[in-house]
Specification:
Two copies of one chain form a homodimer. Chain A has helices spanning 13-25, 36-46, 62-71, 89-98, 110-124, 126-129, 158-169, 177-185, 194-207, and strands at residues 5-9, 29-33, 50-54, 80-84, 102-105, 132-135, 138-141, 146-149, 152-154, 174-175, 216-219, 223-226. Chain A has nine helices and twelve strands. Chain A is of the alpha/beta class. The first copy, chain A, has a five-stranded parallel β-sheet with strand order 2-1-3-4-5, with helices on both faces. Chain A has a four-stranded antiparallel β-sheet with strand order 6-7-8-9, covered by helices on one side. In chain A, strands 10-12-11 form a three-stranded antiparallel β-sheet. Helices cover 42% and strands 21% of the residues of chain A. The radius of gyration of chain A is 20 Å and the shape is elongated. Chains A and B meet through helix 4, helix 5 and strand 6 of A and helix 4 and helix 5 of B. The structure holds a DNA duplex.
Chain lengths: 232, 232
DNA sequence: GGGGCGCTGTCATCAACTTGTCATCCAAGC
DNA sequence: GCTTGGATGACAAGTTGATGACAGCGCCCC
């Protein structure tokens, strides 16, 4: 399991160091910057799993960074946690409406912030925080590497496992073969697109074994998706 | 766009009524129960989009309900917002670690809670965040590549999908066949103008299936438009 | 070192579905 | 009624996905 990557945008150097220590201890990779513009750059390049954003930073305001992160396609889906000293409700709401996923009010303890990050990751990339993925009657345990369908064990090869895992992390979503190759095989794999078909077939065969409804939907000329309604 | 469904587990009747009023006004469907066991049942059957759970309820404790919701495959992915009177950090962390997605500390305003629910839904059902197009009773989800009319799924071929998408992106507007060819087939397609007619027909057939009103208006000697009054 | 054995990637083939075009029929406007 | 433009049904070609088979690897157990 890859370490979750966190981008911290904060100009209080003491706080950065404190958090840096705690996050590293909890097996996160943490990158930090005090500058809004740099934050935007880093967010695009480093593709963090979550951004922690101080509301009040030098240069561009936190809320502006938030808005711009949401506007860029590459970063539009990164969860954002706002750090704010203001406890007023209006601000909290404004933060959430701007597209922040959560906020934490200063003062806070590192432990609380880490729990928050964990909660956010559990939603967005469940594999990073939890050990358990589920969709419909499919369960995947990342620790024991076991998969069950309707309570019964399912035998999967490594590739099928990763493929299913990726689907479980983004249920319902359609992925093109290219995207699946990137996500499951790695960004620079030199593999035939059509090979994806074959693995989809193997995954289907394994997981739908015994008259079960197909959970993988083929979207013609678009790709595949995990979907309990299957091939309708 | 279907209304988001909220399950409220709360034993303070006055609060239930207050929230009920506000959520309904904001176009949510809200179901409420004061009982933990019943909550688990409802969560499995009604498949709500989000559960709001009071930490302190009669019978099973809120935290126990939370844990059990997470354990059941059918409900493992439902976001949970905890309501708690305790502001102490330890409790907040325990709530988040148990699997709650967020918590709100009493007292809170309905508006804040609704903003929270909105933030959570935006993460979990990206469909609600704007990856979705709608017009009249037609919904199109770009992420899952699904189209619904009046809640029921509609099966479309790739071209019909793109065609409908284009209409949904510019509802009411009339497009000549030339413009539709440019927009849907690509700028340099060498396709007969009349072919557009055929695809319009196919789209109509699929989306108006079963005695539904025609949503595509033919404008003689001009083109076609998406229009709920259809062919008037 | 030498079999099995399971996992992978690729292909050729088959099947299903899409799609562009036509000829024909129909409706609206004049 | 005639003309023009749109709707329809049929169809053949073209795409795209599903499948089964197969050879290459790497690994484990002899």
């Amino acid at each position: 399991m890859t370490k979750p990557r966190v981008l911290l945008v904060e100009d209080d150097q003491a706080l950065v160091e404190l958090l840096s220590f705690h996050f590293r201890r909890e097996e996160f990779e943490l990158e930090a910057t005090a500058d809004g513009e740099e934050a935007l750059l880093l967010a695009r390049e480093a593709a963090p799993d979550v951004v922690i954003l101080d509301w009040m930073i030098e240069g561009v305001s936190g809320i502006e960074v938030c808005r711009r992160l949401r506007r860029l396609p590459e970063t539009a889906n990164v969860p954002i946690i706002m750090l704010t000293a203001r406890a007023e409700e209006a601000d909290r709401i404004r933060g959430l409406e701007t597209g922040a996923d959560d906020y934490v009010t200063k003062p806070f303890s590192p432990r609380e912030l880490i729990a928050r990050v964990g909660a956010v990751l559990r939603r967005v990339r469940p594999a990073l925080a939890g050990e358990q993925l589920a969709y419909d009657d499919i369960e995947m345990d990342l620790v024991s590497h076991k998969v069950k369908r309707g309570g019964a064990g399912v035998q999967l090869g490594p590739t099928e496992f990763r493929l299913l895992r990726h689907f479980l992390e983004h249920p319902g979503r359609v992925f093109s073969r290219e995207r699946l190759l990137d996500a499951v095989w790695g960004q620079d794999s030199e593999i035939e697109l059509r090979t994806v078909d074959v693995h989809i077939r193997r995954l289907r065969k394994a997981i739908n074994a015994g008259e079960r409804a197909d959970v993988i939907r083929t979207v013609r000329s678009a790709g595949y998706a995990l979907d309990s309604e299957g091939t309708v």
